[in-house]
Amino acid sequence: MKNKNIDVMEHTSEVKFKVRGSSINKVFENIVIAISDFMARGEKIKPVLKKKIKISGEDNESLLYDFLDEIIYLGDAEGFVVSKAHVKIKGKNLEAELLGDNTNNYPELDHIKAPTYSEMYVKQKVGKDSKKHWEAVFVLDV
């Protein structure tokens, strides 16, 4: 933007992720790992508790948004922090078994406020090696 009255600045309250996987299910499983690593600052979250979730969405992006929102809700409302997941997506429906622990066992967790639709996508891509893979990009308000 070329307007002397406007500066575009980095916003320190958001974090952007790009996550890849061999399938759409694997991308969503890797998203959980990314969130876990971010929140725990690299500390390993023990997978000692289980939560099952079911989500329906209009498209892959709405599934991703609602998936992220549910993970954040579980942390805020139920004190559950994720470490890994087993995800099955069929059409517009997602079922996941989330593994994790109680947030009280990790006093230094970074908080995530909400997902955003900003720059969000979930799509199949072809890599430099001509192999297909899935990729998701999303931004979280922290």
- CATH homologous superfamily name? Archease domain
On the 0 to 100 scale, the average pLDDT is 92
Reported by name, the CATH topology is: Archease, Possible Chaperone, Chain: A, domain 1
Broad shape: globular
Estimated radius of gyration = 16 Å
Termini separation: 26 Å
Strands side by side in the biggest sheet: 1-6-5
Helix % is 10-25%
Number of domains: 1
Structural class: alpha+beta
What percentage of the residues does DSSP assign to strands (E)?
35-45%
Given as residue ranges, the uncertain stretches (5+ residues, pLDDT < 50) are none
What does this structure look like?
This protein is of the alpha+beta class. It has a single domain (14-141), classed as Archease, Possible Chaperone, Chain: A, domain 1, CATH 3.55.10.10. It is 25% helix and 42% strand. It has two helices and six strands; from the N terminus they run βαβαββββ. The strands form two sheets. Strands 1-6-5 form a three-stranded antiparallel β-sheet. It is globular, with a radius of gyration of 16 Å. The two termini are 26 Å apart. The relative contact order is 0.26. The mean pLDDT is 92.
How do you describe this structure in short?
The chain is α+β, with helices and mostly antiparallel strands. It has two helices and six strands. 25% of the residues lie in helices and 42% in strands.
Structural features:
globular, alpha+beta, three-stranded antiparallel beta sheet, Archease, Possible Chaperone, Chain: A, domain 1
